[in-house]
Amino acid sequence: MDDATVTAPAPDEDIDLAYDVFARSCPSRHTLEHVTGRWGALTLGALSENTLRFNELRRRVDGVSEKMLSQTLHALERDGLVHREDRQTNPPRVEYRLTPLGESVAERLLSLIELIEGKMPEVLAAQHRYDGRRPA
Amino acid sequence: MDDATVTAPAPDEDIDLAYDVFARSCPSRHTLEHVTGRWGALTLGALSENTLRFNELRRRVDGVSEKMLSQTLHALERDGLVHREDRQTNPPRVEYRLTPLGESVAERLLSLIELIEGKMPEVLAAQHRYDGRRPA
């Protein structure tokens, strides 16, 4: 961490990184945003528990609007993370579930979510300290 | 997770599952958003490589504005994920680095980022299929 020498990375280090979220024009940055955006993360998390219908998802992802959930699902479906299954019944029944790729993404996302939930006492203590030492 | 041995949590801490990102009023949802928001994720990722000064960070997080980077750093510092070190030199030299908590968060985030970068060919193929089967 205290490496004073901020040089270019060794050439062989970054060599197989064809995609790089740090580069603003890289398409991987958009996918990262779909996955980690407020509603994207919660939608993937909810679907990792169950195949769900639209309204079930809406209840689970507390606070999401119909419009935002619909946009979120389209983006995740387009990225190949969510599969939309139209059961062609009457009344129509549409279900959403994770693809295998969506499952592996959700797994890493959930590991992050669980860490954050578990560390909230530490985070809240830090917020308390921070707010206490700054003028209002 | 359903541990029955929930006896005496420390007064200021809550039991493990007291925090739930799916609940809209849970403070963990805010922290998840700071960590996974567009600039939060890239800032944590950049700092996991090195201690950096503001302008170094700005260059690494390609596309971020001064204002957004500043807001992002404040939120991450307040959550106890980033430490801001003012070296009191002339000219002033302020450095940012991850706290131990920030390091463990960044580790899980990077594992997600690496997965996404590695799976981009699959994502782009899915996007191609999706765009092809929908009317323009």
Radius of gyration of chain A: 20 Å
For the termini of chain A, the CA-CA separation is 33 Å
CATH topology of chain A, which one? Answer: Arc Repressor Mutant, subunit A
- Note the run of SSEs of chain A as H and E: HHEHHEEHH
Count the E strands of chain A: 3
- Mean pLDDT reading of chain A: 86
Helix percent of chain A reads 40-55%
Q: Please describe the biggest sheet of chain A, giving its number of strands, its sense, and whether it closes into a barrel.
A: 3 strands, antiparallel
Sheet-strand content of chain A, in percent, reads 5-15%
Uncertain stretches of 5 or more adjacent residues of chain A: 1-16
The number of domains of chain A: 1
CATH architecture of chain A: Orthogonal Bundle
**Assembly state here?**
homodimer
CATH homologous superfamily of chain A? Winged helix-like DNA-binding domain superfamily/Winged helix DNA-binding domain
**Class based on secondary structure composition and strand pairing of chain A:** mainly alpha
> Of all protein chain pairs, which has the greatest interface, and how many residues does each chain bring to it?
A-B, 59 and 64 residues
Widest sheet: strand ordering of chain A = 1-3-2
Instruction: Assign the CATH class of chain A.
Output: Mainly Alpha
How would you characterize the overall build of this protein?
Two copies of one chain form a homodimer. Chain A is mainly α. Chain A has one domain (27-132): Arc Repressor Mutant, subunit A, CATH 1.10.10. Chain A has helices spanning 27-36, 38-47, 54-60, 66-78, 100-118, 120-132; strands at 52-53, 82-86, 94-98. Chain A has a three-stranded antiparallel sheet. The two termini of chain A are 33 Å apart. Residues 1-16 of chain A have low confidence and may be disordered. Chains A, B: It holds the Pfam family HxlR.
